[in-house]
Amino acid sequence: MNLTDRVVVITGGAGGIGAAMARRFTAEGAAAVVVTDLDGDGARSVAEAIGPVAHPAAVDVTDEEQVRSLVADTERQFGRIDLFCANAGVTTGGGIEVDDAAWDRSWRVNVLAHVYSARAVLPGMLARGGGHLLHTCSAAGVLTAVGDAAYTATKHGAVGFAEWLSVTYRDRGIRVSALCPQGVDTPMLAGGLADGHLGAKVIAASGAVLTPDQVVDAVVAGLAEERFLILPHPEVATYARRRAEDPDGWQAGLRKLVRRLTT
């Protein structure tokens, strides 16, 4: 996808990767960038800093009716949506002890929100014969988020759903990309480090933390090539192969890393 003159919607756009997408897509010549977030003030701040191409909206992606309204309002104002970026995500930093409410929120934000946006935006894209869905899924979706059970499970679900969409709709003109970065310098990572989350410590110890702008460099290249898996950290592909070829050895390596960081 060439981003020039495209109409783009981004969820989770008040900071981190979402805000970086909004800035870069505008620089690439997008006709309109709708910046949405549960934090409406944050979305407005990002949009105002970008200029008249950007349009803020306060949206709870776990509320399907709000997502439908977002899509309908955008199509009404701009005539279409060319690229929908389901980018909002949450983490817990815990394991099986995490309460049901946190598991439910992880499921709703990290998986069901992708379902809701696909339900809302696909009819218009299919009618026009084209469109692109970009789902931020995380390297946790193809590997494991050590220390965060809910994040691991839901991000695997997000990758699986994105793959299903791609298999089902590509021949009808719909392109789907799963963005799977590893460590990114975002408020989510900073908060995890501040709270002492094991997963955040693992990411920091890897020494491969990218800026959101570096992640979006990979996004723009991946969209242009219409790739399914967009891996800002190329080493994730190597890790995924090792994990598939020798799951026991892969898990042994992770356990060794955990012992080193916790003893």
Automatic annotation (TrEMBL):
Organism name: Micromonospora costi
Domain of life: Bacteria
Domain (Ketoreductase) ranges: 6-182
RNA-binding as UniProt keyword: no
InterPro entries listed in its UniProt record: KR_dom, NAD(P)-bd_dom_sf, Sc_DH/Rdtase_CS, SDR_fam
Family statement: Belongs to the short-chain dehydrogenases/reductases (SDR) family.
Protein name (database record): SDR family oxidoreductase
Alphabetically ordered keywords of this record: Oxidoreductase
GO molecular function, one term: oxidoreductase activity
Gene3D superfamilies tied to this protein: NAD(P)-binding Rossmann-like Domain (3.40.50.720)
The keyword Nucleotide-binding belongs to this UniProt entry's keyword annotation: no
PANTHER family per record: BLL7251 PROTEIN, RETINOL DEHYDROGENASE-RELATED
